[in-house]
Every structure is written in C-alpha cells, then in structure tokens.
Amino acid sequence: MSFFTDNAELQRIGALLEDHARPIYAARGVPFQQFAYVLLQPGRDGGAPVGASLRADWRAYPCSLVKVFHLVAAQLRLEDGRLSAHDELDRAMRDMILWSSNSATNYIIDLLTGTTGDTLLDEVEMAAWCERREEINRIFASLGWPELAGINLNQKLMDDLRYGREKIALDLSPAGHNCLTPIAMARLMYEIFSESALLQPARRALVRDHLARDANAPDRGRGAYQLLGYLGDRLPPSTQIWSKAGRTRWLGDDRASFRRHDALRAILPDGQDFQLTVFTQGEAIAEDDGFLPAIGALVATQLAR
Prior knowledge:
By secondary structure, the protein is an alpha+beta fold. The protein has one domain (5-303): DD-peptidase/beta-lactamase superfamily (Beta-lactamase), CATH 3.40.710.10. It is built from 11 helices and 7 strands. The protein has helices at 8-27, 66-80, 87-98, 102-113, 123-133, 135-141, 165-172, 182-193, 201-211, 283-286, 291-303, and strands at 5-6, 35-41, 50-54, 212-213, 240-248, 259-267, 273-281. It has a 7-stranded mixed beta sheet, with helices on both faces. β6 and β7 (273-281) form a beta hairpin. α2 packs parallel to α4 (102-113) and α3 packs across α4. The model has no long low-confidence stretch (mean pLDDT 96).
C-alpha cells in the first residue's frame, strides 16, 4: 500500500505525461517501460498526500539521486552521535548536493560505513568490509517504510568503471549496483518536505536548504547545478524549486549507463505545491536536454489551470 492516495486530477495530468512521453520514446526506439514517475500534492488538513504514478516500483540504477539518501543518513547519524560533526563533513554534504560531487559523496560513505577503497584484502577481510558497507542499507531498512523495498545503497558513486575493492564488492554484492525506485525516492522527498518525525527540525531545514535551486543564480548554467535540462528548467518565473537530479552517460557498464532522473519539489507562483519524481533510461532520452524540462512544464501548466 502506497503512502499516498490516488487522485483523479493528478491521474489526469499523469495520463498527459504518458501521452507526451510515449511517442518520443517510440520515435527514438527506446522502450516506453523505461519511463516512470510519481506525482504528488499535499493532502488536505495535513492528511496523506494525493498522487498518481506510473511504474512506481521500477528498480532502476539511480545515478545521483542516492545522494539525498546519503545526506539524510549523515543527518541521522549526527543526531544519534555515531557520526561526529566537523567542517569537512559540512563541506562534503553541501557539495554532494549542490554540485552532485561524487568525491564528496564517497567521503561521506567512508565516514558512515568505516570503509575505504585502498589495497586489496584477503577473503575474510573483504567479507567484513562488505558487511560494513551495508550500513546505509541498514539505516533505511530500520525505518520500516514499505516503499523502500528493493533499494540498494551499498556502492560508491563512480564516473566510469570500478577498480580494486569497489569492483570486488560490486561483484560480491547480491544486489549489484545501487538501485532505487521512483516510489522510494518520492517517499524520502515527501518526508523531507513534510513535518515528518524522520529528522529534527533543524536537520530537516538543513537538508531542504541543500536541495534548494535558484533559477536566477549565477550558477544556473553550470551542468553540475542540475537545473537546466531537468524538471525545474522551464517552470514559471518566481517558482520555488528544490531538487536533486542524476544523469549517467556511457560508463562502460550497460547496467548503469544512459540514465537521467530528477526528484523535484516546487511551489508555483499561485501557491500550487507539488512533487514530481521522474526516472528515465535510454541513450536518446538521457542525452535530450529538453525531455525532462517539458515534463516539468506540462505539470506546472496543468496545475495552474
């Protein structure tokens, strides 16, 4: 059972998203099964959110969307005292989200799991290393959210192929690469932007601040800022935007190459508040800087009617 309630109006908008995307996929020879979304709006009077979805449980390589999970995991461990605050951690948490830095992310993974990717280990030591690397999976499994079923967060973020311990760990991992589903990502974003008990207020505010995107920022044009080419790119002026996107091109591994995803929370100028998570796969879609912006703009237009 999902954490949101089906809503006829959002299902109507969702059908328009599908009608928009389907012929684009067909024209480019990409299977339409490689498109998924979750569209949400807040429920009335603080009730459960309402929404619509397509293939919400699609297990997909998540690119940099996992970095929101790493940010939340770090906040949870800072809260319970198992992680110590320091300036380099603060800098890494910021850069992991603001610039989608893999180096910052991998530093945080080292801190959370007590693992590094240095010299090779013998079989017994490698097994212990892999067990420690499961720590981030354990953090989220402890929440008991059914929407997190099937996710995997035990791999570092790489720009191409893996070597040494990271390659061996990937080969040994029953789950393989990192994996998320649209519904898992949508649930975490909902918890961040509601008055959830997941995080203390100050920590929730920090996470939100890191996710904020300014359409007028001098850095808007930088690819690492992940606004242009993503869901927030063509939203109306003065829209408030929070988002985390992810994209891979060729990585030398078909299990991870050519994905483009985004998880957006937006408040339109008229006050309409919505969340939209979109997963895509396929080279012709991942390389298209106009596909996700058109999806975001379509939702905004329909909600403003």
